[in-house]
Amino acid sequence: MADLWGGRFTKATDRDVFRFNASIDFDKRLYKHDIIGSIAHVKMLGEQGIITKKEANLIKKGLKSILLDIDNGKLEITPEHEDIHSFVEANLIDRIGDVGKKLHTGRSRNDQVALDMKLYTRDELDAVSELLHELECVLLDIIKQNTDTYMPGFTHLQKAQPVTLSHYMGAYMEMFLRDSARLIDIRKRLNVCPLGAGALAGTTYPLDRETVAKDLGFDSATFNSMDSVSDRDYLIEFLSALSTIMMHLSRFSEELILWNSNEYQFVEMDDAFSTGSSIMPQKKNPDIAELVRGKTGRVYGDLMSLLTTMKGLPLAYNKDMQEDKEVAFDAFDTVKDCLHLFSGMLKTITFHKDIMEKSAMMGFTNATDAADYLVKKGMPFRDAHSVIGRLVLKCIEKNCAIEDLSLEELKEICPDFENDLYDAISLKTCVNRRLTKGAPSEAAVNEAIKRYEKILKLHA
Q1: Domain ranges, ordered by start, for the chain
Q2: Nearest residue to 133 (alpha-carbon basis) of 449, 349, 457, 445
Q3: What is the per-residue pLDDT across 179-224, written as a single tens digit (0 to 9) for each?
Q4: Using an 8 Å Cβ cutoff, are 148 and 440 in contact?
Q5: Would you say the pTM of this structure is higher than 0.85?
Q6: Catalytic annotation on 85?
Q7: What is the CATH topology of the domain spanning 12-105?
Q8: For residue 22, what pLDDT is reported?
Q9: 434-449: per-residue pLDDT in tens?
Q10: What is the DSSP letter of 383?
């Protein structure tokens, strides 16, 4: 067990205490960011004359050799060290001698771990943004190909009015574009560098914090040393955004699970993204969509865990904050897996366009347009609503769509019906007469496509 606190203690740490206190089992994934941050720090120490340039170069060389050996599998991160920071420092001293002890000059583990988590989280945020972009590109392809694929829109899970598959997919595109915008916004607030804040009160060494921040790709150094080491808002924001992404994926998954059922038959999942049953040979289950839906609760739990950890902590750093890593890592990994697999599933899905169109017709989704037809003939809307209600009831009794009725049958309900009704209530007419911004008409959807293309090009 490594000794980081020297002469203050006269007794070794109890082994169970050490094990309970240690974080290396999970923070070892920060090794690259820890070393990159240390290289920037020691470079600055040399340039500021806090240590000699010769010492700084020797330390940098040692740190780079450690990074290379870990990447190549030559150096194993072992559990006798409390955390990844002490592991790197101990290995550095083993390699270059006592000069390695100067690495920690002007730095605390508090600002060191705050830096590591920000660097790691920034990379994870960029990775999630890229995966979201891939999903948005898959959605855009589906939207472009289905401007004339008619289907029912729903309220209360009841067929409501006709839309197109393009318009339906556009609703999810809007959700994911908001997700992307949130990540861009979070990254701006995240991108300030805590290194140099020390334990909580800065340092007497003449550190050049802004140069270190610039070297590490940050916009600036943080503005308050106490906040620097105790801030986990960026993680809470990110986990909140990840929870919203998962909520959107879960809603989409629920939709596809329903559409994949025998009762809907709107879609068929590709074999590569489905599983079977150990006992029922006919089964083809949408397991990826179900798992995405299920894992949403897991990411919610990660967010609630971190919120609960932070809710009662006084300034500045407290050991409780070590609990941020496992939940954050779990959320990062889960969301990336879900986005990757969901994109693959969606890209390979088969849409049964004929069944979708028939469902829209048999679901009386054009009933509102039939009522509007009578209104244009001079009938008050409330009376037209009642007439079409009787018409729908007749169709239910005959198990047919409105357009399947003959003109004579239509006139039995209302003499105002004429042959032009059939064109007025065709799915194509119902959809394409809705020309307002954001509506499902082909013209409106084409405008949306132009907007999507422009946004995705900016985010590429």
Answers
A1: 12-105, 110-357
A2: 457
A3: 999 999 999 999 999 999 999 999 999 999 999 999 999 999 999 9
A4: no
A5: yes
A6: no
A7: Fumarase C; Chain B, domain 1 (1.10.275)
A8: 84
A9: 999 999 999 999 999 9
A10: H
81 is catalytic: no
pLDDT surpassing 90 at residue 459: no
What token pair was written down for 229?
């080491």
Helices 31-47 and 109-145: crossing angle in degrees, nearest 10, is 120
Determine which one of 81, 156, 166, 343 is catalytic. 156
Q: For 320-356, how does the pLDDT look when each residue is reduced to its tens digit (9 = 90+)? A: 999 999 999 999 999 999 999 999 999 999 999 999 9
| Closest to 232 measured CA to CA, from 156, 302, 296, 145 | 302
Residue 5, pLDDT score? 53
151 bridge partner residues = 163
Cα–Cα distance for residue pair 26/2, rounded to 1 Å: 18
Q: Provide the phi-psi class of 49: left if phi over 0, else alpha when psi is between -120 and 50, else beta.
A: left
Query: What gap in Å lies between CA 314 and CA 21, rounded to an integer?
Result: 20
The letter for the amino acid at 294 is: G
- As a whole number of Å, the CA-based R_g of the chain is 31
Q: Write out the CATH class of domain 110-357.
A: mainly alpha
Tell me phi and psi for residue 238, to 5 degrees. -65, -45
Q: Catalytic one among 220, 261, 277, 340?
A: 277
